[in-house]
Amino acid sequence: MKVRFLGTAAFEGIPALFCGCELCKKAKQLGGKNFRTRTSVLLDDDVKIDFPPDTLTHMFRDGLDLDKVKHILFTHSHSDHLYAEDMVARFPGYAKSEDHPIHVYGNDMTLAKIRQTFEANQGERGKFQLHRVRAYERLELQTAMAVPLLAAHDPNETCLLYYIEKDGKSLLYGHDTGTIPEETWAWLKNKKLDFVILECTMGNIDYRKTHMNVEAVLETQARMQEYGMLKPGSQIVVTHFSHNAQLLHSDLEEIFAPHSITVAYDGMVVEV
Ligand SMILES: [Zn+2]
Ligand SMILES: [Zn+2]
Ligand SMILES: [Zn+2]
Description:
This protein is of the alpha/beta class and 272 residues long. It is built from seven helices and 14 strands.
């Protein structure tokens, strides 16, 4: 399974819109891996997680054929993960797309936002099919199996993580979330994970209620080791960084290298 990190920033991006903080200034000077767009990943060509407002940029940069996507899994409805207005670009009159519908999976709030946007644009006309998901209920995608898991993120909606099996490999998509809830640990603890994606929005800031910081990532890794969830060769990657943490890509690498955790950057591709 090929995992492509399309974007690796939290809501504001890095450098952030309108921001003159020290990190944003440095990121502008240095560019490269310090430029981060809003978070999404693509699994092979056909399963995408979230649809952020930078999707057009991701397509330009990586030469993607987005019409090969058959399934989009949504974690939650925050605007850095869902920009339904650009999904409308697949409708007749805006794109010569293939006939197959893209299957869209999400919680009730995510689907309501998508439906409202679609209805304001004459409806989806066979281009998308919406599926409401519930935590811990298995989803059969053509080339993969996915299970949504409860996150600890926004108390106003049922935010989800995803456990995914594809090509004989298992992956945990771990954000947005603060410390992973106990019921999700109870579901996960007997699983063996080949690839784990965790957020580290907060860096070294002392906060981990609705997002993770470095300490929360390391505790999550330790708990996975304790439960025997990580095999030799399993990888952990951190992503979804905020400029508020004031950490350059090289700073993050310095923090995580001793723990054998990889720091994602925009456009990074990992063969799992
Ligand atoms: Zn986010
Ligand atoms: Zn900033
Ligand atoms: Zn969020």
